[in-house]
């Protein structure tokens, strides 16, 4: 299946503010929708994050666009809406030391983000059809590419993705997350092998 991964328009929010699931409007999606349509084959189903900055673009692309909450951006918890410069420096350092598993107070980790995004894509890819467009967020797109391309967190968390950009992933063999035990004996999720190729990124 071909999965078109589309990032939302630039949010109408001052720079330097932490936002993940903070629901803010985005710039006018109509010019982006006109550009993006040239990449999407006719009748490509569109599924979107429910956050306004993504949903507005999805509706501009397809008035029948569906919504799936699993496509939301990472939840930064208590950090949402704060200026990055006001967030506890020690917590930011802890995050930098363990980007995959650290979770802000009341928020979620990159590992949890990746698990729900992959779960969403697995369920959507199981539906009949040859292609799908997902209008979502940078974190969700990076998490998807990291999983399907088997990239380490240090690589996928830094993938460049412009606002309103589109990337095309061709998934040959959908694979879910397999259960494993960590060193404490607790269940955790790890990627099963997935066959996919990235046809282009950030266009």
Quick structural summary:
With 203 residues, the chain is an alpha/beta fold. Helices cover 28% and strands 20% of the residues.
Describe how the helices and strands are arranged.
Blueprint: E1 2-7, H1 30-36, E2 46-48, H2 52-61, E3 66-67, H3 89-97, H4 110-125, E4 131-136, H5 138-148, H6 153-156, E5 166-173, E6 177-181, E7 187-191, E8 195-200
Parallel strand pairs: 1-4, 2-3, 2-4
Antiparallel strand pairs: 1-5, 5-8, 6-7
Query: What would you say the CATH architecture is?
Result: 3-Layer(aba) Sandwich
What would you call the shape?
globular
Integer-rounded radius of gyration: 17 Å
Q: Which sheet architecture does the biggest sheet show?
A: 6 strands, mixed
Q: Tell me the CATH superfamily.
A: Phosphoglycerate mutase-like
Structural class: alpha/beta
How many strands appear in the DSSP assignment? 8
Percent of residues in beta strands = 15-25%
The low-confidence parts are 176-188
If you had to describe this structure to a student in words, what would you say it looks like?
This protein has helices at residues 30-36, 52-61, 89-97, 110-125, 138-148, 153-156, and strands spanning 2-7, 46-48, 66-67, 131-136, 166-173, 177-181, 187-191, 195-200. By secondary structure, the protein is an alpha/beta fold. It has a single domain (2-200), classed as Rossmann fold (3-Layer(aba) Sandwich). The strands form two sheets. A six-stranded mixed beta sheet has the order 3-2-4-1-5-8. Strands 6-7 form a two-stranded antiparallel ribbon. Helix 1 crosses helix 2 (52-61) and helix 4 (110-125) crosses helix 5 (138-148). The longest helix is centred in the middle third of the chain and has 16 residues, at 110-125. The model is unreliable at 176-188 (pLDDT under 50).
